[in-house]
């Protein structure tokens, strides 16, 4: 497996489908998952060598994906953070970019673009 992915997503169906899709289409290994902001922040900040890409939803069981993004703002350049959310307004996209996300993907329309991005960064 090439790319090591950590997923912060509270919907178990979406999470499981994403894990399977990333493994099958992008040769990515999911190294962990979280359903809350606290779980995501704690794992991502204390396991830096263990992940390459964090995929973060904005709405979580507790807290928000914005808190996860904020906690990762000082990450090394080789660690990528993307938001994968249904709440893809221009204002939200802009806010996420200002907070330091590498990319923003709309769950309902941009799963292929997310997969392509995963393949692209795994080849770097």
Automatic annotation (TrEMBL):
Pfam families, alphabetized: Response_reg
Coiled-coil regions listed: none
Keywords: Phosphoprotein
Record PROSITE patterns: RESPONSE_REGULATORY
4-aspartylphosphate modified-residue sites: 57
Occurrences of domain Response regulatory (ranges): 4-122
One Gene Ontology term from the biological process aspect of the record: phosphorelay signal transduction system
Name of the protein: Response regulator receiver domain-containing protein
Species per Swiss-Prot/TrEMBL record: Brachymonas denitrificans DSM 15123
């Amino acid at each position: 497996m090439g790319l090591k992915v950590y997923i912060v997503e509270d919907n178990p169906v979406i999470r499981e489908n994403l894990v399977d899709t990333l493994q099958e289409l992008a040769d990515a290994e999911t190294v962990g998952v979280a359903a809350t902001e606290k779980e995501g922040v704690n794992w991502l900040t204390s396991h830096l060598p263990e992940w390459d890409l964090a995929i973060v939803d904005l709405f979580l069981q507790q807290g928000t994906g914005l808190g996860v993004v904020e906690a990762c703002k000082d990450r090394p350049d080789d660690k990528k953070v993307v938001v994968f959310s249904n709440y893809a307004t221009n204002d939200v996209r802009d806010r996420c970019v200002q907070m330091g996300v590498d990319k923003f993907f709309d769950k309902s329309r941009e799963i292929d673009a997310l997969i392509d991005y995963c393949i692209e960064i795994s080849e770097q």
